[in-house]
Amino acid sequence: xxxxxxxxxxxxxxxxxxxxxxxxxxxxxxxxxxxxxxxxxxxxxxxxxxxxxxxxxxxxxxxxxxxxxxxxxxxxxxxxxxxxxxxxxxxxxxxxxxxxxxxxxxxxxxxxxxxxxxxxxxxxxxxxxxxxxxxxxxxxxxxxxxxxxxxxxxxxxxxxxxxxxxxxxxxxxxxxxxxxxxxxxxxxxxxxxxxxxxxxxxxxxxxxxxxxxxxxxxxxxxxxxxxxxxxxxxxxxxxxxxxxxxxxxxxxxxxxxxxxxxxxxxxxxxxxxxxxxxxxxxxxxxxxxxxxxxxxxxxxxxxx
Amino acid sequence: xxxxxxxxxxxxxxxxxxxxxxxxxxxxxxxxxxxxxxxxxxxxxxxxxxxxxxxxxxxxxxxxxxxxxxxxxxxxxxxxxxxxxxxxxxxxxxxxxxxxxxxxxxxxxxxxxxxxxxxxxxxxxxxxxxxxxxxxxxxxxxxxxxxxxxxxxxxxxxxxxxxxxxxxxxxxxxxxxxxxxxxxxxxxxxxxxxxxxxxxxxxxxxxxxxxxxxxxxxxxxxxxxxxxxxxxxxxxxxxxxxxxxxxxxxxxxxxxxxxxxxxxxxxxxxxxxxxxxxxxxxxxxxxxxxxxxxxxxxxxxxxxxxxxxxxxxxxxxxxxxxxxxxxxxxxxxxxxxxxxxxxxxxxxxxxxxxxxxxxxxxxxxxxxxxxxxxxx
Lengths: 304, 376
What we know:
The complex is a heterodimer.
Chain A: H1 22-38, H2 40-62, H3 94-130, H4 132-146, H5 150-161, H6 165-192, H7 195-202, H8 207-215, H9 220-243, H10 255-261, H11 271-298
Chain B: H1 10-13, H2 20-23, H3 29-33, H4 37-50, H5 52-69, H6 74-79, H7 85-94, H8 101-113, H9 127-162, H10 167-181, H11 184-198, H12 221-227, H13 231-268, H14 271-279, H15 283-320, H16 326-335, H17 339-367
Helix pairs in contact in B: 4-17, 5-17, 9-10, 9-13, 9-15, 9-16, 10-13, 11-13, 11-15, 12-13, 13-15, 15-16, 15-17, 16-17
C-alpha cells in the first residue's frame, strides 16, 4: 500500500506488543526513530509537516503585510515581486493569507484530532476493558456516528452549534471519535488476552492501574498512526466546512474559505484559487506520507 | 471518520470495520462442511438488519436535534428576526413547539415513518415532493463517479501490482497519493478553470443546457434522453457530467487503486497463479481472470465505504458545479437557514448510506462465506 523505495532497507520493526523494561523500551524508540529516518516517504512527509509548522510559527516575522491588510489600489494583482502569490479582490496579499492560514489549519487539525483521540480512546478503553452493557452502549453510539458520511455529520453539528471555526473544530473532533474508539476497543480486547494482563489481574492489581500501566501503553501504537492520518482528514474537513461557509468566518485567512471566495475570479485571477489549494494539498499529503510511513514501521503485519 | 482517508486503513487496524465484525455468528470450517453455512449467513443477515434499528433511531434523534438545538425557535426562523412576538407565539402554538420535547420527537418520528419529511420554510412545499428530482440528480452523478473510480482505480492498481516497483508503479501510486490528498472542491475549481474557462471544452455548470427543450420524466437525464431518443440531449448530459463526476470520483479512485494494488500483490504471489503461469496462461488472462477474482473482496469493502464518501462529497461537488442534486439542495438550505430541509436532507442521505453499507455487508457474506464472522 505504501510507496517504499525499492532500495529501502527492510528495517526491524519495533515490537509494540512487548512489555519490556525501561532501557529496552528506550532502544525500541530509538529503533523506530532510525527506521523513520530511513523511510523515504515518511521523511518527505515529515519535512513537509515541519515546513508548514515552521512557517506557521514564524509567520509574522516573514511578512511585510498583515493577512488582513486591505489595499484598494492593488486589487486582484497577478503574482509579482511585491506580492509573491498575487492579491485578492480586496487587495490583500495572498502569500500572507496562505501563511497565516497554516496557523489556522494546523491549529484546528491538532485540537480536533487530540480531542478525538482522548475521547475515543477513553470510550474505547471502557468498552473494551469492562465489556457488558458499557460496551453495548458505547459501540452502538459509535455505530450511530458512523452511520453518517463524515462531512455530513459535521454539517449537522455545525448547523446546531452555529457556523464558526471553533464549532467546526468541535464537529471534526466529534465525527472522528468512533474511528479512534473502535481502534482502541479492538486493541484492548487483544491486549486483554495477553498473559501479563492475566497475571496482573491474578495478583489483584486494580483495574485503573492495569488500564494505565499495561493496556494503554500496549494499545497506542495504532492510535498514533491513525492520529497522523486523521490529522490529514481533519485538515481537509476543516477546509471543506470553511468552503461551504460553516467554518472560519471572514476575515480569517482560512484556506477553504479563501477557495470559496476565489470562485468569482477563477478566470480573471486564478492565483486566488491556486495557492490556497496547493497549501491544503501539501499539508494533507505530508500527514498522509508520514502516517503511511509510521504504519509501515510500527505495524509489522503490513510489511510486504 | 469512516469514509475519509482513514478508510484506507480499514484493512490494517480495522478502525472502521463494518458493523459485521461486532455482531456476526461464527462460521467455521465444520459448519461449512456440515452444510449449515447458508443458515448462518441468513441468520447473520437478519441480525444485521435488526442492528439497523438502534442506528436509525439514533440518527433520527440527531436530525431531530438539529431543528431544536438552534438558537431561537423555528417559528422565529420562519417569520424572520423582525417578526411580531405575538405572531411568533401563535405560530409556536400551532406548530406544537410548546409541547414537551419527547412528544415533539415522537410526532416527528411518526411523520417521518409516514413519509412526511416536513415542509420547506423557503418554498412552502412538502420536502417529500421536492426531493425526488434532486435525489435522482445525485444518484446519476454518484453512479458516474463510481464508474470512473472503479474503472481507473482497478486498472491503475493492477498495472502497479503487475509491474511492482517499476516506473509505472511509482507514477500511478504517486497519482493515487495526490488523489487522496486533494481537496475535491479545489480539484473542481481547477477543472472549471482549465477545461471550462481556458480550453472551453466542457460546460462548467449545471446538468444540461438550460436553452434545450428537454422534458424530464424519470429525472434521470440519461434515461430520459434514451427513452425519447434525443441523442443531442444525451451528449449534452454527458458533457455536463464529466467534470463533476471526475472531481467526485478522484478520491475513491485513488483509494481503490491502492487497495487493488496491495490485494493483487498478495494474490499474484500465490501458488495457483504460479501454476497458471507454468501452464502457459497469458499474462492478461492471469491478471483479469484468475487474480482479480480473488483480489476483489477487499475492493468490494472499499467500494461500499466509498459510496458514503461520495454522498458526503456530493455536497461540495454539487455546490461548485451547480449540480441540482441533494447536496446542492442541502447547501442552499444551509445558506437560507431552511432547517426542515437541512434536517430531512441529512436524514435521507444518511439512510441511503446505511442501506448501501447493509447491502455491501450482505454481499460480502455472500461472496466469501469462509470469512470467520464474530471472531475478534
